[in-house]
Write a structure and sequence with these properties.
This is Ankyrin. Keywords: ANK repeat, Repeat. With about 350 residues, the protein is an all-alpha fold. The chain is built from 20 helices and no strands. Helix 6 packs parallel to helix 8.
């Protein structure tokens, strides 16, 4: 050490003598020492590229790649903040070669390296990290990089992440899968990318509100368009449960009736939805529910698809009785198809 209690290796950096720095490395200098401020050789060298080059060129040197600086930052995080692609490459390559996984290290805000680079919009650095780090590493909030890409509606990055093996079935703290999130953002392309991925997408996992993606989609719609018909059709084709029953006893069909989406109701029924499902919470059949909503188009749709016009609830109230309390068109539609016709 010198009079300031600094090691020769550290002094060589501060004095700007890379040749001496390299000489000391070749002669066995300890690379894991710290200066008087608690900074490691690696953290000091991050500000001086020529020294960093010498440091990583010595294959026999064992660098503590995950040694934090005095501010609590990992060397990789520091390099990312600087948008220093060369340092980032050097660090992750060294880590990969020496079996040091840096995928799960977190910065002071709880972000992984991948998520940090993405949030800082450092595309080149992000692309580099994507090739070396685990795409499914979670941050302090238990979110993966796929979560953030979906919430940003970043179609290109979502596609790239899927190609790199992103877990399309991860669940966030609200119980949402990536498909739930894409539906929440109403981003058709991301929804289709997820549904068309080669991964085994779980379509019948409910979130914390007890909604599977199909129900979540129907409940979130204000207007039904051909875009959503395509999505619902694909959900059905991929294996969603059209007769899923939530904690309230409702099925996707019930929610489609509530929204007065006749086309959705027809699509569901044509694909096996139970048109006579008993709605426990309401003590009604789907037809009675539609009558109560005073929707003649929905009533006609259900009747035409063999809805039970003779249904009687636990209070002995019949479909026809309920129809008699609405309008004549609904009553006639039901009575013309009612064999009891009271």
């Amino acid at each position: 050490m010198d009079i300031n209690h600094d090691y020769p290796l550290i002094v060589s950096i501060y004095c700007g003598t890379p040749a001496i720095f390299n000489f000391l490395l070749e002669n066995g200098a300890n690379v894991n020492i710290k200066d008087n401020n608690g900074n490691s050789i690696l953290n000091i060298a991050l500000n001086k590229p020529s020294y960093l080059k010498y440091l990583f060129s010595k294959k026999s040197i064992n660098i503590n790649i995950n040694e934090k600086d005095v501010s609590g930052n990992y060397p990789l995080m520091t390099a990312i903040y600087k948008n220093d692609i060369n340092s980032v490459k050097s660090i992750v390559r060294y880590g990969t070669t020496h079996g040091e996984d840096m995928s799960n290290i977190l910065n002071n805000n709880g972000y992984t390296p991948l998520i940090l680079a993405y949030k800082l919009k450092y595309k080149v650095v992000f692309g580099c990290l994507l090739r070396y780090l685990d795409v499914n590493a979670k941050d302090l909030n238990k979110n993966t990089i796929l979560y953030y890409a979906i919430m940003e509606e970043d179609v290109t990055t979502v596609s790239d992440l899927i190609k790199y093996g992103a877990n399309v079935n991860f669940i966030d703290k609200n119980g949402n899968t990536p498909l739930h999130l894409a539906i929440y953002k109403k981003n058709k392309q991301i929804i289709l990318n997820l549904l068309n991925s080669s991964h085994n997408l779980l379509l019948n996992v409910p979130n914390n509100q007890n909604d599977i993606p199909l129900v979540y989609l129907i409940k979130s719609l204000n207007v039904y368009t051909n875009d959503y018909k395509e999505i619902i059709s694909l959900l059905i084709k991929k294996g969603t449960n059209v007769n899923y029953i939530d904690k309230k006893g409702n099925t996707p069909l019930v929610y489609a009736i509530k929204k007065n989406f006749v086309s959705v109701v027809e699509l569901l029924i044509n694909n096996g939805a139970n048109v006579n499902h008993y709605i426990i919470e309401r003590d009604e059949s789907p037809l009675m529910y539609a009558i109560g909503l005073n929707s003649i188009s929905m009533v006609k749709c259900l009747v035409n698809h063999n809805a039970d016009t003779n249904f009687k609830n636990s209070k002995n109230k019949t479909v026809l009785m309920k129809a008699s309390l609405t309008n004549l068109e609904i009553y006639n539609c039901v009575s013309n198809n009612n064999i009891n016709n009271y």
